[in-house]
């Protein structure tokens, strides 16, 4: 379908926007308030978004939380780093398992990964603290413990639910696999009928034999001679695939073992099989039952995964907010006066954006080099929850909301 010039122009702009900006990547930073926090925001926005097109910026709203003592903040900082990693891990596990459960509908995974009924990027951009779940009158430690307990329970429930569903799915797949595949291993019950067998005879029995396709003539000409007491002209081709054929043969019960031995020497494989209508019906019913059970569990499990993915993701972004608050107080001191900001970087300008941020905030750390393109690599401040490779003069956290692999435009 040809696009009209205006539509083509809009499409090009959207494609360029999606290509330039990392739609699922955010830099969550904070800087101390200047005369006002609004001034801090305006300064950043002017030099990164309005003038240089380095990023799209949003204010990140963090409520007035209880500060506590400096010692409590230092200890909490390290614990929040561990909690951050744990909550992200559980969030991604829930997303991954939802993809596994969806199976052939896996292409719909992205649309099922929502946070509070909206897209993940939208939730981060419009983040609002959940006062009902995490009351700001609670201490920071208590809020962290609430999140830890909540996500820990989801993780434990996920292990239980996934184990039960995987067991059911595995049993069904095992039975279904036996309904197809090579005649050497598949279930033969669906291929044979009652009339193929001599039943209820004191002396005679019917065997099922797997014969390679290139040996059909050898079988037809020689099966009566493999041993004595084989019923003449009793063999019948029941089924064949690309490699083998399934034949019946009737003989006296007393020579069955001898017949099997000589058949094996000719590379004819006798399958152990007893025709029993009740057992065959039970086997078919078991597959039907497992398939029905899987179908019944599928809907509730998908709903549980979607709900708890949202819970985990929202909890994860709240942990990020806690970390920004704690690190900002430790960095910039009291009274609390900082502006948290969310940057969506132009990926073609990421290095320049980092340079601009270091120029803007390098004065916050006397040891940093203004204009450096990388993180500060000479300092590691104990208790701040940063390693040497990720310390910047300003508070910084990276957020990637990609939970599945997405092909680029």
TrEMBL record:
Keywords: Hydrogen ion transport, Ion transport, Transport. GO terms for molecular function: proton-transporting ATPase activity, rotational mechanism. Pfam families: V-ATPase_C. One of its GO terms (cellular component) is vacuolar proton-transporting V-type ATPase, V1 domain. The keyword Zinc does not apply. It comes from the Eukaryota. Signal peptide: none annotated. Belongs to the V-ATPase C subunit family. Subunit of the V1 complex of vacuolar(H+)-ATPase (V-ATPase), a multisubunit enzyme composed of a peripheral complex (V1) that hydrolyzes ATP and a membrane integral complex (V0) that translocates protons. V-ATPase is responsible for acidifying and maintaining the pH of intracellular compartments and in some cell types, is targeted to the plasma membrane, where it is responsible for acidifying the extracellular environment. Subunit C is necessary for the assembly of the catalytic sector of the enzyme and is likely to have a specific function in its catalytic activity. V-ATPase is a heteromultimeric enzyme made up of two complexes: the ATP-hydrolytic V1 complex and the proton translocation V0 complex. The V1 complex consists of three catalytic AB heterodimers that form a heterohexamer, three peripheral stalks each consisting of EG heterodimers, one central rotor including subunits D and F, and the regulatory subunits C and H. The proton translocation complex V0 consists of the proton transport subunit a, a ring of proteolipid subunits c9c'', rotary subunit d, subunits e and f, and two accessory subunits. This is V-type proton ATPase subunit C. It comes from Gryllus longicercus.
């Amino acid at each position: 379908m040809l696009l009209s010039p205006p539509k083509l122009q809009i499409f090009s702009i959207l494609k360029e926007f999606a290509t330039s900006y990392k739609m699922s990547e955010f830099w969550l930073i904070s800087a101390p308030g200047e005369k006002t926090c609004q001034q801090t925001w305006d300064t950043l926005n002017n030099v990164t978004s309005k003038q240089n097109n380095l990023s799209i910026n949003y204010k990140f709203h963090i409520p007035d939380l209880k500060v506590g003592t400096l010692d409590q903040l230092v200890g909490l900082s390290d614990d929040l780093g561990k909690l951050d990693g744990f909550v992200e891990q559980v969030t991604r596990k829930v997303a991954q398992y939802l993809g596994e459960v969806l199976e052939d509908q896996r292409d719909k995974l992205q649309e099922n990964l929502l946070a509070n009924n909206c897209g993940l990027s939208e939730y981060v951009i419009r983040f609002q603290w959940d006062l009902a779940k995490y009351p700001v009158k609670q201490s920071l430690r208590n809020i962290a413990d609430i999140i830890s307990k909540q996500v820990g329970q989801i993780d434990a429930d996920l292990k239980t639910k996934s184990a039960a569903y995987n067991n059911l799915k595995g049993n069904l797949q095992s039975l279904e696999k036996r309904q197809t595949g090579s005649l050497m291993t598949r279930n033969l019950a669906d291929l044979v009928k009652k009339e193929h067998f001599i039943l209820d005879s004191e002396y005679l029995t019917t065997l099922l034999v797997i014969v390679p396709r290139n040996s059909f003539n050898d079988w037809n000409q020689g099966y009566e001679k493999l041993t004595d007491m084989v019923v003449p002209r009793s063999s019948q081709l029941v089924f064949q695939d690309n490699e083998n054929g399934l034949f019946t043969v009737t003989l006296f019960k007393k020579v069955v073992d001898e017949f099997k031995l000589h058949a094996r020497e000719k590379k004819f494989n006798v399958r152990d099989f007893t025709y029993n209508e009740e057992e065959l019906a039970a086997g078919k019913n078991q597959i039907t039952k497992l398939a029905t059970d899987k179908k019944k569990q599928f809907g509730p499990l998908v709903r549980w995964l979607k709900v708890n993915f949202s819970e985990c993701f929202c909890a994860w972004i709240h942990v990020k907010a806690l970390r920004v608050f704690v690190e900002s107080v430790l960095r910039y001191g009291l009274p609390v006066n900082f502006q948290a900001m969310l940057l969506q970087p132009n990926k073609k300008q990421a290095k320049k954006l980092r340079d601009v941020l270091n120029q803007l905030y390098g004065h916050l750390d006397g040891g940093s080099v203004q204009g450096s393109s990388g993180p500060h690599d000479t300092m590691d401040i104990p208790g701040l929850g940063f390693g040497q490779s990720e310390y910047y003069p300003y508070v910084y956290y990276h957020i990637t909301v990609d939970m599945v692999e997405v092909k680029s435009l």
